[in-house]
Specification:
single chain, alpha/beta, Aspartate Aminotransferase, domain 1, Aspartate Aminotransferase, domain 2, 2 domains, four-stranded antiparallel sheet, 12 helices, 15 strands
């Protein structure tokens, strides 16, 4: 038996382990002092009443022979696929329900989607990057091509002459930087992918936080994207499904490579490798797209957006450079006084009792930067903002 030796290329996932170890050591020496945790990317508000009601109703359905559901369609229940397609129509994006594939979440799909492509591909990943992009491709035996992002370009790199890639990961609004491409910037990537016969894997997990009308919610708002892009989205941050698990993937009918239709390939993949997402979860997800559900999730999103404004106001008083916050639930700031991100982590922990995320954990390009999440309670966020402004 020969194992997948590509796993030997993976680095130890030390970021959150190191954070946990440092935090525990500090707490052991300072018992009774309260820490404000502004690093985690998990939501803190509960599921909306519309979703809870739908989940309860689906559980009751499963208790009666007449409404019981067994195996669900592998690509998603028609009622949810149609609801998602109708939601895209409200954004001016013409998507057919059969181009929608229901998943157990964006993280799962971002790795599984690599089944559509031969091993040994060249994959362009913008750094700083969500670590799973890199690890999933290393596991698959692909070659990673880092596209370095910087403060000078607002952490929004554009295709440059000489770039050659088969797959391109784009996350906008971005995790960890919070930066978001406008239409013209995203159009350059779409034109590039079509010219090079590359495929964009577009991570739209944070689209619900967009407020700027010049920032697309979907890559399919850009002309030409249907012949070069796959969009992967999640209800985790949009509707608080981090512990409930549901997302969706859009593969247009027009997307072909090497004479093969990627949508048809994905149907074959899903019907072979999955038994679909549970009926109960899909009923809860469908409630997100009702008028009642949309109004309720917007209220939760408003709270997270207000948290972002609270942190941004604090940083504005210090004169320190940052991006994100306006269209994303993350704020990416430059560390003060020439510090690297782990040194700033230690300073924040020791002097302000705030826990954030060192940028170096997202790649070498993040060494001098630091990420804050806006998913804490408004009370903790306000206190953290006050402590941060005082410290800086």
């Amino acid at each position: 038996m020969i194992p997948n030796t590509n796993y030997s290329q993976l680095k130890e996932s030390y970021l959150f382990f190191n954070i946990a170890q440092k935090t525990k050591a500090w707490q052991d020496q300072h018992s009774g002092q309260r820490l404000l945790r502004m690093g985690i990317g998990d939501v803190s508000l509960p599921l909306s009443p519309a979703v809870i009601s739908a989940l309860h109703g689906a559980v009751e359905d499963q208790a009666k022979a007449g409404s019981f559901h067994g195996y669900m369609p592998e690509c998603g229940a028609p009622f949810l696929r149609e609801a998602i397609a109708a939601h895209y129509q409200t954004k001016g994006v013409d998507i057919d329900s059969e181009e929608v594939f229901v998943s157990s979440g964006a993280s799962d799909e971002l790795g599984d989607i690599l089944d559509l492509f031969q091993r040994g591909q060249t994959v362009a990943i913008m750094e700083p990057a969500y670590p799973a992009y890199v690890d999933a491709n290393l596991m698959a035996g692909n070659r990673i091509l880092k596209v370095e992002a910087s403060q000078e370009q607002g952490f929004l790199p554009l295709p440059e002459e000489g770039l050659e890639a088969d797959l391109i990961y784009i996350c906008s609004p971005n995790n960890p930087t919070g930066a978001a491409y406008d239409r013209e910037q995203l159009r350059k990537w779409v034109d590039f992918a079509n010219q090079k016969d590359a495929v964009i894997l577009f991570d739209a997990a944070y689209e619900a936080f967009i407020e700027d009308p010049e920032v697309p919610h979907s890559i399919f708002e850009i002309e030409g994207a249907k012949t070069c892009a796959i969009e992967i989205c999640s209800l985790s941050k949009t509707a608080g499904f981090t512990g409930t698990r549901c997302g969706y993937t859009i593969i247009p009918r027009e997307l072909t490579r090497g004479g093969m239709n990627l949508r048809q390939m994905w149907i074959r993949n899903r019907t072979t490798k999955t038994n679909g997402v549970s009926y109960i979860i899909q009923k809860g997800a469908a409630a997100v797209f009702t008028p009642e559900g949309q109004a309720q999730i917007q209220e939760n999103l408003r709270i997270y957006k207000e948290n972002a404004k609270t942190l941004m106001r604090a940083l504005d008083t210090t004169g320190i450079w940052y991006t994100g916050g306006k269209n994303a639930p993350y704020i990416w700031m430059r560390c003060p006084a020439g510090m690297d991100s782990w040194a700033f982590f230690d300073l924040l922990l020791d002097r302000a009792q705030i826990v954030g995320t060192p940028g170096e954990g997202f790649g070498a390009c993040g060494r001098d930067f630091f990420r804050f999440s806006t998913f804490s309670s408004p009370q903790d966020t306000a206190e953290a903002a006050q402590r941060l402004a005082h410290l800086l």
